[in-house]
Amino acid sequence: METHLQGINLATGDLTATLLPAYEEEHEGTGEHHLPIPSYWPLIASVAIFVTFIGLLIINQTPVLALLGALGTLIGIVGWGLEDPQAYAHAETYPGFGVATAEGEVSPLAEAVREQAQEIVDRLVVRGDLAWSAHPVNVEVEQEGVVLALYGKVELEAQKQAIEAEIRKLPHVIDVRNFIIAEDAILNEANRRIAQLQEAGKLEGATDLRVLVENYVLHLYGEVPTRQMKYLLEDELIQIPGVRVVVNHIGLNEDIPGELGRTKGKVGKG
Questions:
Q1: Which terminus of the chain, N or C, has less C-beta within 10 A?
Q2: CB within 8 Å of 162: residues ≥ 6 apart
Q3: DSSP secondary structure code for residue 256 in this structure
Q4: How far apart are CA 132 and CA 8, in angstroms?
Q5: What is the pLDDT of residues 120-130, one digit of tens each?
Q6: What percent helix, strand, coil does the chain show, rounded to 5?
Q7: What's the CA gap between 154 and 180, in Å, rounded?
Q8: Half-sphere exposure of residue 35, counting CA atoms within 13 Å on the CB side?
Q9: CA-CA distance, 53 to 65, in Å (whole number)?
Q10: How far apart are CA 163 and CA 5, in angstroms?
Q11: Is residue 38 very low, low, confident or very high in pLDDT (cuts 50, 70, 90)?
């Protein structure tokens, strides 16, 4: 079965090719003008002309000085002529290639990349097929250049990694910082910690311990012989990264959900 992961294909030049004309059209007729790029070539040419003049005055004593000055003058003029006078203006009005913007804002290019990344997230998480669950995941610009950060929750570690892999394919993305919480990773870590406590002999007499993870909340079920053991488990599991709340159902004789020990997300059918 083909998923949206296989259907996403973004050309490397699309963002730049579409963004720059749009920006130029937006600012057409605004009366904005930019000075030529700051350059060292006029200074080099001026110094070379001065050296040439001095060399001509004393040409009988040091004819080489006049020749060197003339050569320097020629290099300065040619270098100045070949330089792009609008390079600085382009960098200023079209930031996103490492040029800083106003505090609290991102460049047009970085925002365009973020929107493309959010579209990928929406396809894989919100509007994806039934293999993926529907949870909000947001994309933010962490750093110009472009470094993106992913925040939110999914149910599967595989889904978290798939989202990051697709976003890394976007043009201009140099890094992705993935802070997405995967519920099955929380579940696996909870079971691992319970197993460690059992191996250490700290859960003697505990029976039918189970964990359910949903929306950053970890539900703990089972039976233990003492209150100290009950809260030992709670204190251990609340330390798992991504867990915000532990709901301790131990000893309450509550009905155990049929999905106990699993996240609600499923891969494929069934």
A1: C
A2: 5, 124
A3: P
A4: 16
A5: 888 887 544 44
A6: 45, 15, 40
A7: 7
A8: 3
A9: 9
A10: 8
A11: low
